[in-house]
Design goal:
The structure is a homodimer of 553-residue chains.
Chain A (H helix, E strand, L loop, with lengths): L2 H14 L5 E7 L18 H8 L2 E3 L2 E2 L5 H10 L3 H4 L20 H7 L3 E7 L17 E5 L30 E2 L29 E5 L2 E7 L6 H15 L5 E6 L28 H22 L6 E7 L20 H7 L13 H4 E2 L1 E4 L8 E3 L3 E2 L3 H8 L14 H6 L9 E4 L13 E4 L2 E7 L19 E10 L19 H15 L14 E3 L2 E3 L8 E5 L4
Parallel strand pairs in A: 1-9, 1-10, 2-13, 3-14, 4-5, 4-9
Antiparallel strand pairs in A: 2-12, 3-11, 5-7, 7-8, 8-21, 10-12, 15-16, 16-17, 17-18, 19-20
Helix pairs in contact in A: 6-7
Chain lengths: 553, 553
């Protein structure tokens, strides 16, 4: 871990940079572990992210706290287990509820400590005014209230047609992706893949909050220029507040699958369309890579690179529902699940607590502080970001029950230490949110007490995680996920340390006993929509507008 | 591809280094695509190989010519398709046959062109004296005549017990692999995995050929110090002939699974035992990584780094038969195969022409010539090594039918070009070797006409690839392996370019018509064993000896 070197750097930095560090979090949506160059994808290459990962610390056992979007983000923002927070899986475009108002967020704490705070992109913590970022600790926000597959966005045409002459070179530069005597056809998802409806939907709104105002920029939203707009807004934030401590939470819309009216269920800026070997998914990821490259260049231009911790991680594993428009779980195929569900297909991505749903591609980059070329296999969690950020900022810890650990900061700085000897995973949606542990990572082991299919394998959301879809295991199904990351070979009793099962049973009982399901007071059904600046009883289609002020709470 | 930069480097190098380049080929046994750090494995890290890969060109569409050992190596040595060569899959420890004597090898050609030639490690091209490396173009040889799972080797004890205090740091240095309150137990393959017998076996011999002599160094072979011995022999070769053009073919015994008498079916030097998170497999791979690090250091010490092309590749995908002692196919899970074979498990590794059996982890490193940080997705083959090496050496091309392409050299040097617009894959063992194509890569597409399970999925070797185990596809099963490397979504007719099926049919017919199965004149049954320097009619157990001269042909 190059401890001596790092310690020297830390000492030098402490003298040179007494101000709290900037913290920039790149949070990608539904990005699978195996979708990046540095995590082994053979045709989608991500040169900027690969270079940042190589220049910092790769975190190979980073877990999300929950395998779906809203709950994963609630855990990131609060440092707490989602059932404790009261976030029922996913908020949809017709939900009245949001992140409960008595929760404090990482942005609340950092802003109170003197930081300027920015939220970009997918929010997904409630769309009513009281739940939007401005009221949850963020000085500025430009983004979407929910997922790009829920509200209906659209993809405008690029003129002239993009990518026409660039099909054999990826956007990242310097990457040949294979010539061919056989031409590539227009691509479409496999015909066998069918949309599982989320019920009535409405045009996707785009929202900006800044200088006391809150407006719907457009409804519906054009997805094509979106990421570039977000970068421009991010850059302005960095420039405006370069002299102050900054927290930027960049929650990409990429690479979540979009609504059926978007070709290929993916989108990208005109500069990226048709530029990668992998097709629409690769183009979207190339745009994420571009954003990271722009960000690094801007941090350097502002002389902030050595005072900025950059974290990159996904919110949960890929949805396997939409064929080639979705991502890859990488090594985490959950091979044993194929036998369990009898389909011959594992479905261990988003929505499941098999590794494919919860093990995230992740790295930390911080020039002069995080050792270049380092790796850590320590078990860390998205819930650790809040306590680690407060520690790095020199701010008091959050009070009350915090499930994340500040020791993530020590790990990043090469000071050793362990974040989680026992990390529980809960699951379920809406009325089926469970306070009984589905699975846990314990040292090199992973225990499953409840298993079920991910999105695409079950009949989510209406009846997934009903009892009939779940398998219960007593004693737990056990894997050595360091030797067997594919969860292919359940361990036999004679392969276990003698006390392991008893230790796991006790740890689970203690954690479950302390896990109180926050009463979900707001309704997360299909009852409220944000429609051109006013709420309406759903369904309310045909919301078409631009620059409409939103009420402030 | 940084063409301008590379061209300038090439021009400079041409002035500075008129002598033919050294060529060093690191050829790993049964290493899966997903087993390395730079190909995405989360717990087994390979820092030296990762650094070499990052300092050179990663080749993400490198295919072996055949999915099992002897045939893959015959294709490497001859540049020709294995059925054309007459190599029936795998030579076992009781086979009288070998690579047919009228074939010329890459070593024959390079030696004739003034190179000094070295073979290290697993030979697997015949064990009778006329088939051993000395007669096939190699000046020196230290290694094994066949696989470590065929002849019975053994693993000596390390004193003091290795790895006792090093369990949380990998051998490569600087890599934390996760601490744990839960201790790791001794590991064993899952009880459900059973040995599929290869018939009678005998003690594994180790052979050295040098200065006109040929001796059995030891029978049986102690596997523990083996890789270190091989490195010492390689280093001596480099030092002895540093002033001359060199060809070194380093065919690791790692990470092929060993015989049941070796704990965990893997082995490693004492310095590596118990040092990695992944267990015995990770320890073995750490030793490969160490060899690569030693090699680079020695090339630098001898001032040969800028005159040496270093190629790294595997011989075929991992055997999935022996549980955790075997490797990982990475993204190439062949997900559609799970539905086909009805087992719920894909078995697409070694022995199959699904990507997991034939797509290899690969890179090229050549300081000043191969652009650092470059990638190529061009379709290349192990068969290309011979013609590319002759081109780089400035030697005349091999005459007769050569299936490999010298354009691999252009790709490595950043001069562009395509190696294979249509690359066929054949398969089968012994009497079932097929001259009908199983599969082919064509541009971004992969076509399967015949599919079957890999080793561990079928009843290999006695009756695998009999008709009952194979599925035939007409029209071929088609995948876009750039967008869908997991071979998860077969393409529907409306997803194909209009002429693709006709083009594929014509290309297959032409290739199959030109594919003559070389009469397999030597017997590859269970009839001849190398037993302490003499051949004996098999079975002949209890061969125990050291330093016994072998007859020269």
């Amino acid at each position: 871990m190059q401890t001596l070197l790092t310690s020297a750097l830390v000492a030098a930095a402490a003298l040179a940079a007494p101000r709290p560090p900037n913290i920039v979090l790149l949070f990608v949506d539904d990005l699978g572990y195996g979708d990046l160059g540095f995590t082994g994808h053979p045709s989608t290459l991500t040169p900027a992210l690969d270079e940042l990962a190589a220049g910092g610390m790769r975190l190979t056992s980073w877990y999300t706290a929950y395998p779906v979007c809203s709950a994963s983000r609630a855990a990131l923002l609060t440092g707490r287990q989602p059932p404790r927070v009261g976030m029922p899986g996913v908020i949809n475009s017709l939900s009245a509820g949001g992140l409960p108002l008595n929760e404090t967020t990482i942005a609340d704490h950092l802003r109170a400590g003197g930081y300027k705070t920015l939220a970009i992109g997918k929010w997904h913590q409630g769309q009513q005014p009281q739940y939007l970022p401005r009221e949850r600790g963020f000085d500025r926000f430009l983004g979407l209230p929910f997922s790009v597959d829920d509200g209906e966005g659209f993809a405008s045409n690029c003129t002239p047609p993009a990518g026409a002459a660039a099909a054999s070179v990826s956007a990242g530069g310097g990457v040949a992706v294979g010539s061919s005597a056989f031409t590539a056809p227009p691509r479409a998802p496999p015909a066998a893949v069918q949309r599982v409806g989320l019920g009535p939907s409405l045009p996707l709104p785009s929202i900006r909050q800044d200088n006391g105002s809150s407006v719907i920029v457009a409804q519906p939203t054009d997805l094509v220029p979106l990421t570039e707009q977000w970068w421009n807004f991010t850059r302005q934030f960095l420039r405006d507040f370069a002299a102050e401590p900054l927290f930027a939470y960049v929650a990409f819309g990429h690479v979540h699958t979009a609504t059926p009216n978007v070709p290929g269920r993916q989108y990208a800026g005109c500069a990226f369309q048709g530029t990668t070997a992998r097709g629409a998914f690769g183009d979207a990821l190339a745009e994420v890579d571009w954003f990271a490259a722009q960000l690094l260049a801007e941090l350097r231009a502002l002389a902030l690179e050595e005072n900025t911790l950059l974290l990159f991680v996904s919110d949960n594993g890929p949805s396997l529902r939409w064929g080639l428009s979705a991502g890859s779980v990488g090594p985490f195929v959950g091979a044993a699940a194929a036998f369990e569900n009898g389909t011959g297909y594992t479905n261990t991505g988003k929505g499941s607590t098999w590794e494919g749903g919860i093990r995230m591609p992740a790295f930390a980059y911080w020039k002069g502080r995080v050792a270049p070329g380092s790796h850590s296999g320590e078990v860390v969690s998205t819930m650790d970001v809040l306590p680690a950020a407060l520690k790095l900022a020199g701010l008091p810890p959050k009070r009350g029950v915090v499930d994340g650990r500040a020791s993530l900061a020590d790990i990043l700085l090469g000071r050793g230490g362990s974040a989680h000897n026992f990390l529980p995973f809960y699951n379920g949606y809406y009325g089926n949110v469970s306070t009984e542990m589905y699975a846990a990572r314990a040292g090199r082991y992973k225990a499953h007490w409840i298993t079920g299919p991910g999105l695409g394998g079950g009949r989510w959301p209406t009846d997934a995680h009903a009892a009939a879809e779940l398998w219960r295991h007593d004693p737990p199904l056990l894997f050595d996920v360091q030797a067997d990351p594919s969860e292919m070979f359940p361990l036999a009793p004679d392969q276990l340390p003698p006390t392991l099962l008893a230790e796991l049973r006790d740890a689970k009982a203690a954690a479950d006993e302390g896990m109180t399901l926050r009463a979900i007071t707001a309704d997360f059904g299909f009852e409220w929509a944000l429609c051109c600046g006013v709420g309406c009883a759903a369904p309310c289609d045909n919301c078409t507008c631009a620059n409409v002020p939103l009420p402030l709470p």
